[in-house]
Fold these 4 entries.
Entry 1:
Amino acid sequence: MSTTYTLDTSTSRAHPTPAPMKRMTVPQIQARKGKDPIVMLTAYTARMAQLLDRHCDMLLVGDSLGQVIYGLPSTLPVTLDMMIAHGAAVVRGSYHSVVVVDMPFGSYEASPEDAFRAASRVLAETGAAAVKLEGGEAMAPTVNFLSSRGIPVVGHIGLTPQAVNALGGYGARGRTNAEHAKIISDARAIADAGAFSMVVEGVLEPLAQAVTAEVSCPVIGIGASAQCDGQVLVIDDMLGMFERTARFVKRYDDLATRIDEAATRYAEEVRTRTFPGFEQTYQPKD
Ligand code: KIV
């Protein structure tokens, strides 16, 4: 099957689709609790969404795009407009996965009403099915406000990168009894508030397993445990685009090296005038 699609801008869907396919739904994801593991990856562009879509159940337009795409020092400077632009691109490039867009720092914490205004823009302007927001018990009223008004919410607990200043870094969470208990009560609060799924990031494995057993919605792990209901990774990390990554990242390729080698060959051919060759140039017709 060719993976080279062109974007059909009249339908905002990848065209041609490899097979008629209906997009997965939030209730279908919810029903996967304790069943087949949910496959989730981040995507930030239409082309990457096209390539990943058939392999995934959910595509996450993560605010990790701040670091991955924009070279920012953390996720904190990411704006709602950035999330909406990339969210719309990922929806245009996919036809199967549930697309979830991260709520950026500052767009949802102040009040449930603020969160609703921002999240409704995300759904209306991208076509995504759901939003993800970071935080535990303190965010439960907001999760409830959104989910009871038609905005499906994925929670995010444990290591929450938007709270890096409060947490003091990106180290694993749940090493003390107090932290362990807090993360369990965060999970319970977010699930009870109506999150249809939650990400648990960077926690000790037994804690990830306890969270998964504790709540009735699917728990997606990252730096957590294979026993979670699904897994997510940042696509550029798993493709080997960065030299340094967190311990929990498994590199499935070494794209940085392959890009370096391709660029080396290109530069060499430009400098020796061997590119463009006959095949890449237009010749007069006889
Ligand atoms: O922003 C992101 O990519 C995320 C994942 C790491 C879960 O939140």
Note: The mean pLDDT is 93.
Entry 2:
Amino acid sequence: MNKGLFITFEGADGCGKTTQMNLLKDYLIQNGYEVVLTREPGAKGLGEQLREILLNYDGEVADRCESFLFLADRAQNIETIVIPSIKQGKIVLCDRHIDSTVAYQGYGRGLDLDEINYLNNIATGGIKPDLTYVFDVDVETSAKRVGDEKDRMESAGKEFFNRVRNGYLELAQKEPKRIKVIDSTRSIEEVFQDVIKEFRK
Ligand code: TMP
């Protein structure tokens, strides 16, 4: 099935992953590849409505409910966008995926990691990214980049984001072949050079 490539972009809010994803998209298109961009939550249609709830609902949201909404969006993204595109030989670039749920709902909210891995596996049908970038920035830098206008997830506080960051770094240690950590406190150009280097590898 795996004719194309599946690459995911991860990191705390304000880490610069979306900028890097767009730069890689332009680079790949210039080099003759067919590229599909998607994101979690909220690639299109139903996903966009789930994103609206997840980021902007202002009542109580139970941690497990939050996880299931992210997972529901993931199942939709994988089945309607990722798998068909990979089958057509395209390179799929996805802004956030399974590791976000491990980092945010697992390390951040404190839900059981084995349970999250199990549920992630159900949501994706067992498909895993070929390559994952984690754009690493300290909590102060990411808070500065996000600014004062925060959505529901971005309002979680410094301790939460410290746990999220550590979660990503631990994940990268567990899966060093798939997950590449990139120091994203540097300039956009410097970070992008590392993005290309890892892609070429
Ligand atoms: P972003 O699209 O701006 O990166 O925002 C998505 C937000 O949702 C971000 O704060 C991370 C959060 N998130 C989770 O908590 N769990 C998940 O599984 C995913 C995909 C995102």
Note: The radius of gyration is 16 Å.
Entry 3:
Amino acid sequence: MPGTVVVGTQWGDEGKGKIVDFCAQDADVVVRFNGGSNAGHTVVTGAEVFRFHLIPSGILRPETLNLVGNGVVVDPEVLLAEIEELKERGHPVDNLRVSERAHVVMPYHRTLDGLEEELKGGLKAGTTLRGIGPTFEDKAARIGVRVGDLLDEEALRERLATLVPMKERMIEAYGGQAGLSKEALFETGRDWGDRLQAYVADTSLLLDHALKQGREVLFEAAQGTHLDIDHGIYPFGTSSNAVVGSASVGSGVGVRHLNQVIGVAKAFTSRVGTGPFPSELAGEEASYLRDKSLGEYGTTTGRPRRIGWLDLVMVRFAARVNSLDYLAVTKLDVLGGLDPLRICVAYEHDGETLREFPASMRVFGACRPVYEELAGWEDISEDSWVGAVKRGYDELPGEMRAYLDLLSHETGVPVGLVSVGPAREATLELRGT
Ligand code: GDP
Ligand code: IMO
Ligand code: MG
């Protein structure tokens, strides 16, 4: 199976970074294909914790080529800082390449992100303020700057001559203070180009070569299905496609190379940002999960994540639009100590039971969760969980296996990976068994 895609099934932060790093042990290439530095993917190796915003989560495997595909919007400041940090921590990044077709997040995109959020009122998504929306707006409007332009002084100068006055008018119209300098932006762009030059490549071609040689490729999504611009909770999601189809478009290979799809599902639900959240918890249970799970603060923004019970209407929808082969279920350890547990299997809306996710936010906002109640399992130490997964599936608590059975039954997708801790060793592979 040379091409495996890893997608998020919820609202992001499902643990994609951990799962991609784990699967990268068998991969020759890892490619990020969507989003930008709004993503925050955590990888834990031994005592070290890494948080990647743009660099693919396979970077810690030195034999694996890591590609930032054309579908990613690249903020060079963030990318260069990540490269520097990795080098300082003793991890060379000679195995990194960035698509010349990827769009660049310019300083004015961040400014516009903030201004748009202020004006959006009830449509505000609570963005990461990383300039993501405005960069994708420019890409679609064909007024963007691409990574390749940073290496071509003439193209860059020409683009900025046209774009800067347009952007100034936009910023002013939105009530901001423009004051952009074409020359300063040109110098910044050229400097980025100089520093990134060694990494810039035709990543689609590199992928094609690898696939023709039968190499294993992992496609890494950012965000989650329910943040996807088409399939997510519009207008509260993000500006790119986070579903499996985007792996082809955002990396430049045909769909026949997407042979297997893994959906990462957190054992409960979290959300950073605004919008309805039917299974949301308040009070003690939310604080218990958030505080126990150190990761439940936004990796990119540090905001506390909103927490809720596992919502299988969401995961069922993700199974459909991504044609999932397997689920990778993460953070099961974090639920330990809560009893009973609840799983949302349907919504109640206006006296009717909905099993499918609604498109309308007005409908979604009025949905009440229909829960199944299950017995919880014990809260045990990280080492004990690692010991349990080493001994195999049957050694996991019976209540946890019942929880996974319900998940699988309700979504129609088998569980292929079980994660009970941030570390690589806290992972149980069931695929093929
Ligand atoms: P991503 O955006 O999908 O890559 O997820 P994030 O990295 O933003 O958030 C996931 C958080 O959960 C990170 O802090 C991970 O280290 C952590 N994590 C992943 N899997 C597990 C798990 O099975 N158990 C626990 N306790 N933490 C996990
Ligand atoms: P990873 O890859 C969680 C959310 C933001 C906001 C909305 C739009 O780590 O799973 P944007 O900055 O994209 O315009 O914000 O999307 N969001 C995420 N939430 N995880 C992410 O990425 C996210 N990327 C964007 O909080 O509600
Ligand atoms: Mg994240």
Note: The mean pLDDT is 95.
Entry 4:
Amino acid sequence: MQTYAEIHARSRRDPEGFWAEQAAAIDWMKPFGRVLDPAAKPAARWFVGGEMNTCWNALDRHVAAGNGARTAVIYDSPVTGTIAKFTYAEMKAKVASFAGALAARGVVKGDRVIIYMPMVPEALVAMLACARLGAIHSVVFGGFAANELAVRIDDCTPKAIVSASCGIEGTKTLAYKPLLDGAIAIARHKPEFCIVLQRPQLGCELVKGRDVDWAETAAAAAPADCVPVLATDPLYVLYTSGTTGQPKGVVRDNGGHAVALRYSMSAIFDTRPGEVFWAASDVGWVVGHSYITYAPLLSGCTTILFEGKPVGTPDAGVYWRVIEQHGVATFFTAPTAFRAIRKEDPDGKLIASRDLSKFRALFLAGERCDPATLEWAMDKLKRPVVDHWWQTETGWPIAANSLGIPTGTGAHFPIKPGSPTKAVPGWDVQILGADGHPVPAGDIGAIVCKLPLPPGTFPTLWNAEKRYVDAYLAEYPGYYKTGDAGYIDADGYIYVMTRVDDVINVAGHRLSTGQMEEVLASHKDVAECAVVGVADEMKGQLPLGFIVLKTGVNRPDAEIVKEIVALVREKIGPVAAFKQAIVVKRLPKTRSGKILRGTMQKIADGEAFKQPATIDDPVVLEEIRESLVPAGYAKTPA
Ligand code: COA
Ligand code: AMP
């Protein structure tokens, strides 16, 4: 049997041969002509000319193979006290009907459909129904405000929006409909219709002539068949934070995505057809797209849709209850969830009381996994805990301890806390210095991936090809710039340490400080502002605002800060977790006027820092420290 070293080397030496073999695990309606078109612009394209359908591969194919009675989806919702199971045959029927309902209202291949939904099975049904028709879905996370939804409506101009009356966040029932209506009112583009799922916990009024009730529409619809699409046709657009208020619409194609995700389930997650895979995330994030919806179903596994939190629904033992009750083999979540659990159950007593005999491995991603969290999880679970690294842009892991690939020396590579281990087959990860050349092992630099990127990665940004080139390809010709910085050690282990841009990671959620600054700057009393990500024990990072008030403003600081916090919640949403801002006299800047955000973050976190040589006025740093201390920051003298 080939080992990791041989498989990885082959995937880079002969990418076409390697990925053509993986593509055999997918049903094609028309074979692809070329495995890879390296000359395509702006990025190389995979499986050119091939036709397939992602929904067919996720559902119909398994039914056709005689596995229709296998459980496809388990909906476990501690917040509503519901557990429901759907077989592959049932999911196929639901998806075909809902696709029929969309088609009856004119949705065709290439149309966009926004899905703004909580964690209910209908969210998966809507995604797969779009895939069935070749329509392009764009799922928007429920924690975003109406304004953010409006930005996405205007960018991808959907023909339809699928939503629900409410979401349930822990103990709170949140009305979604006012946000939907608010977003449509703000947006320049108006959808032709909305389909709204009425949830029993909180119903809503439908807008006559625009909104239709999910239950009535789906029941009345004639089931729709799978529409063949090109491998290179988009399956979805998923918006993610960039450096500005305008989010980036990451485009995912159909063919490469299906091939790569299916491969990842066996090679990385070592999970086989019929086994239960659980990603405790949200369908609004890439983890939810790839590892709640698509990869498990493409692989014939059972996926779990969990509507709850790691703590408080009802307690820090809920994950272990779900794993025991549904026989989960592989579990995936973000380190922040484990920090929340550890805080409430430090000795892991709630873990010890459960039968976790089917549970083989835990995968953590979405943010840097601090060694203490990884070690705690390994100690309490006595199973491999795999830190793996990827991004919305890549759609599947770049680096991992790939449990399905023989190492030649053991069941998996030795785990080094703080490192997501090695590049996955298909990926060539390198570290480049400021001069654009590779740096020696152990030296920090920009983490880049040599082109072409493997299948399943983003071929462009929606409506923004130039931004795609400028943001990802221009700085290091021949490489994809990940936006992360780190190093590779002498054993080839990758360490992802920090972002090089204005992106921060709050409870595994990717947010843009630049976007928050745009909101702060829009407040009438703010002259200047900066937002940095400061360390937080549970969420990893939290945004902290610094504001300089306009001359003549003499209202109490606390009043202005309260308004600013409310403004971020209103414009971006509760997910931004923006709760704290400090009024300062001046912001530290370089002589050329660049705000020294990195230095401010270090002062707030009480870390040692070097005073930048280009600083305009060093006294400002001390002023900043003095402003931070009363708010509980800058604990260690800077
Ligand atoms: N719809 C509406 N509001 C939402 C939401 C959704 N889908 N998801 C989160 N929010 C709200 C929360 O209610 C909270 O609002 P509040 O300010 O009124 O309390 C706010 O957004 C921040 O949410 P969150 O960051 O999730 O914080 P929390 O304190 O509610 O929970 C954790 C903290 C650690 C328990 C939680 O972040 C968690 O479960 N993380 C797991 C990691 C994860 O799922 N990552 C996804 C990528 S893999
Ligand atoms: P997202 O696009 O939301 O998945 O966020 C991607 C970003 O999260 C990456 O660019 C990293 O900055 C960070 N990230 C995700 N997983 C890891 C990990 N395992 N280790 C370190 N950082 C990570």
Note: The chain has 19 helices and 31 strands.
